Amino acid sequence: MKLRVSAVQYQLQTISSFEQFAAQAEHYIRTADEFGTEFVLFPEFFTTQLMSIGDGKGNALTIEDLPDFTEQYEQLFTSLAAKYNMHLIGGTHVIRREGKLYNTAHMFYPDGRIARQAKIHITPTEVQEWNMAPGDGLEVFDTDKGRIAMLTCYDIEFPEIVRMAKAKGADVIFCPSCTDDRHGFYRVRYTSHARAVENQIYVVLTGTVGNLPTVDFMRANYGQAAIITPNDVPFPPRGILAEGEINDDMIVTADLDLDLLYEVRERGSVTTWRDRRTDLYTDWA
Description:
InterPro entries: C-N_Hydrolase, C-N_Hydrolase_sf, UPF0012_CS. This protein is 27% helix and 26% strand.
C-alpha cells in the first residue's frame, strides 16, 4: 500500500483577517491537490498567524485569544478536507479545555471527522511564556491508508513516546514543528531520523518559515520540511525521500510505500524493531 503525502513549509506573515488565513491555507492544499496528495501536513503553531490580526488598536492578540478562533479553524479545515477529499493534518492549534491551554494537533478526515492529539512534552518557553498544559495520553488514528500518529515537535525528541506509537501500530508519524533557530531545528530533525531508524517507520516533518513581527515568540522561524525513511537498502541512503529548501515558502511531496516497511522489519540489513531487548528494558505492548 502506498500513500502520497505533502508537507507545507508555511510562510508566516502578518494578516488582517481570518479570510486571508483561509486563502493562504487553501493555496497550499490546492497545490498539493495538483500532485494527487492524500495527506497534507501543516506546521506547529501556524495558526498563531491569526494573532497578527490584532485588536483593532495596533496591538497583536495574545495566546489567550487564539482559542477564540477554534470554531472557525475547525470549520475551515473540515470543509477543505471534504472539498479536496484529503486527510489534512492541520498543524497545531491552541485550544482551551477546562481553563487550560493545549497545543493540539488536528487531523481532518474527508468524511468530516476530526482527530486531536495534544502535545505531550511541553518546552520551557511554552510553559513559562504561554502557560501551556501537557497532553495526558497518546492515541493512534486509523485511516483508509493505514495507522498514523501525530507527535508535535519536542515530542519527537523522546524515544519512548514514538516507540509507544509504533507498538500501537503506527507506521507513519506526522510531526508538525516550529523552531526559531538552527539549534532547535536540528534537534527535531536529527531525532526524527533516529526515530525512523529505531522503529522502522516513516516520519513526515515540517516547520514554519517567515516571521510575525508583532507576535511575541513568533518573530523568528527556521524551518524545513522532510519526508524521512529508515536507513536501509530499499530507501534512499540518507533516509530522505524529499526535503524542502530551508526557510523557503514551499511544499514537498513523496510517496510512502508501507510494504517496504514491512519488508525491512522482517529481512532488512538490520531489524531494529524485532531485535529490541525487552528482557533488558521496558517494552510497550
